[in-house]
């Protein structure tokens, strides 16, 4: 496998990263997961735009245009003859003796490489169970940060409970997002999802769902909703680059509506599959 390490393509076993890279000690960096369908990037521009946002917010000085990142990623896909899956990309603040302040004169470290992604066809068809969990993460969830301990712990709690995702809430009145997904509810034909602010990651798939909803003449609102609204919704679904759209049919021990994937989630999923290219 070829890895893009800064500006070079190297074999995976030759990809040397310093033990004091700040990604390692501090999770001091940002990342993206970008989907590849049939050898082509899906929504690459949007991912690069969000990457720039994360870099700026984290004050990591990396110019993606100067490094011709889009071209390099294209080359990475070609060199690996990669057809279907994802590209994982991270940029850390670079390697420096361990100390909290931003190091001076340190170049960021970029790595990008292909990762397998299997289409969650079964979950999409039958829907999934989720658990509700307190959102104990930090308050800058808008930055796609490498610090994922809170997300990882939430996801594992879900799996330990026989569920596939944890839906997070700050308090009873405020559901935010999933451990690695955005959350949508539907009541009386109106789709609602959390506003894009510091409490959630503004998912690229989330934004794409806004586009699809418009095409399909569906009403979609960015509004905070409560745990009660979530539980009483007609439909619930989650979205992400790797999940696309997945209906939620059970929350803890409660069924969502009749416990089957709802028509609007299905409609969006169909539209997703048609528009993908
Ligand atoms: N996760 N919210 C969180 C906390 C996420 O980690 C993700 C993505 C999303 C959805 O964003 P997008 O639609 O841009 O993928 C929302 C990625 C896929 C991951 O960490 O694997």
Shape: globular
The separation of the N and C termini measures 26 Å
Helix content: 25-40%
Oligomeric state, counting identical vs distinct chains: single chain
Give the domain tally: 2
**CATH top level assignment of the largest domain:** Alpha Beta
Q: Which fold does the CATH topology of the largest domain refer to? A: D-amino Acid Aminotransferase, Chain A, domain 2
What order do the SSEs take from the amino end to the carboxyl end, as H and E? EEHEEHHEEHEHEEEEHEHEEEH
Q: Enumerate how many helices there are, as a single number.
A: 8
Taking all Cα atoms into account, the compactness measure Rg is 19 Å
| SS strand fraction | 25-35%
> Bound compounds, please?
N-(5'-phosphopyridoxyl)-D-alanine
The CATH H-level superfamily of the largest domain is D-amino Acid Aminotransferase, subunit A, domain 2
Weakly predicted, low-confidence segments: none
- Mean pLDDT figure: 97
Pairing-aware structural class of the strands and helices? Answer: alpha+beta
Second-tier CATH architecture of the largest domain: Alpha-Beta Barrel
Main sheet properties: 9 strands, mixed
What is the β-strand count?
A: 15
Describe the structure in brief.
By secondary structure, the protein is an alpha+beta fold.
């Amino acid at each position: 496998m070829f890895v893009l390490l800064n500006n070079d393509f190297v074999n995976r076993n030759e990809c040397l990263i310093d033990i004091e890279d700040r990604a390692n000690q501090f999770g001091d960096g940002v990342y993206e997961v970008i989907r590849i369908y049939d050898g082509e990037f899906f929504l690459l521009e949007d991912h690069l735009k969000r990457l720039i946002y994360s870099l700026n917010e984290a004050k990591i000085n990396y110019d993606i245009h100067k490094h011709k990142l889009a071209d390099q990623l294209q080359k990475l896909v070609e060199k690996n003859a990669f057809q279907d899956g994802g590209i994982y990309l991270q940029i850390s603040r670079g390697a420096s003796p361990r100390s909290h302040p931003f190091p001076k004169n340190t170049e960021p470290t970029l790595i990008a490489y292909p990762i397998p992604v299997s289409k969650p066809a079964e979950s999409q068809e039958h829907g999934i169970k989720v658990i509700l969990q307190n959102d104990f993460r930090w308050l800058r969830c808008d930055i796609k940060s490498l610090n994922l301990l809170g997300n990882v712990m939430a996801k594992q709690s879900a799996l330990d409970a026989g569920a596939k995702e944890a839906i997070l809430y700050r308090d009873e009145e405020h559901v935010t997002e999933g451990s690695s997904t955005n959350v949508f509810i539907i009541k009386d034909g109106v789709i609602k999802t959390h506003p894009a602010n510091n409490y959630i990651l503004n998912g690229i798939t989330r934004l794409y769902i806004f586009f699809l909803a418009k095409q399909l003449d569906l009403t979609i609102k960015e509004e905070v909703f409560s745990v009660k609204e979530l539980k009483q919704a007609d439909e619930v679904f989650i979205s992400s680059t790797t999940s696309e759209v997945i209906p939620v049919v059970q929350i803890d021990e409660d069924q969502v509506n009749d416990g089957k994937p709802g028509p609007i989630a299905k409609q969006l999923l169909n539209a997703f599959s048609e528009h993908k290219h």
